[in-house]
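Table S2 (text version). Query chain:
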Amino acid sequence: MAGQSKPLTLARLEDLTLGSFALVPPSETLDHLVRFLSTWSGSELNGRIQIIQYTAKLLVPFLQWRARSQYDAGRRKIPLSTSAERLAKLGSIISDARMLFRIWGLLPIFQWMIAMERNPAPTRKLRTIERLQGWSMLAYYPLEHLYYLLSHSIISDKLTLPSITAFIPFVRTRPNDKHIPLKLSTLGLWSTRFWAAYVVLQLAHLREDGRLLRMRERTLSKTKTGASVAEKEEISRRKKALTNELIVNLAYLPLTIHWSTEKGIFENDVWLNVCGLIAGIASWRSGWEATALKPARGLADIPPTEPAGEKLAPHIDDPLKDVVEEPSLCDM
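Corresponding structure-token output:
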């Protein structure tokens, strides 16, 4: 009979148990999430765990306040929250891990600076900005690396200078008494000062990018046929990318200023964590949109050659787009 159920054989039992995922429909959202999480790099992973880090840091003072309120109301034996302590430890571990992930940060900076000289920006202003950004990063990363290694007592707080005879073969080298003292707080301050310089330069970069984009939009609108659908989509995509990057760097700005001064500008760390969370969410959004599948375009949708004299700045991935981290691990 048509309505008769299939006999429960061993193969059928296997299909119902081990093969139960056959009943789960494919999910485009899941596919997108896997693509996004699979694009592993230091900065990308930084941005993803950054949201967890700053969410945890924001929850800690709330849980502590709730514990004190419950204690005052007689609903808790001690005015402490074990959940807050655990989240604080999680935030500290992530903070340390994110700094470790940037230990190879100089390599893409070298690559970026070499590439920018062979493929210069469309305007002299952008070229100067990018050069200054690159040199600020050449100062930022070594200082941060020294800070990280010193904070974990991996290196000494005195950097011994090599003797001149150390570079001469077959010559006996004598120990050099000259050294450079390394102070944790000084390394942290100066590393973030170079980071702050980069952020200010990046805001200037975004302003020039926006000017070139508006110029291109006006040029396309004056053509006989006007902008094609593909060109309009590209301009819209670039506007969204610029807006998103502007949000990230505006969130960076108060953080870098705060950590670049000895006393800081915020008395309450909540504002720092809010800025860090905003930058993390914006970075996540940027990565999510970048890994979205683009619809296939026909020949009619392919935009013509860009008009001469109206070139846009090439998109260069921001080397510090996901670096929202205080210069100290626990003692500053």
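Notes on Table S2: The longest strand covers residues 158-160. The beta strands are 158-160, 179-181.
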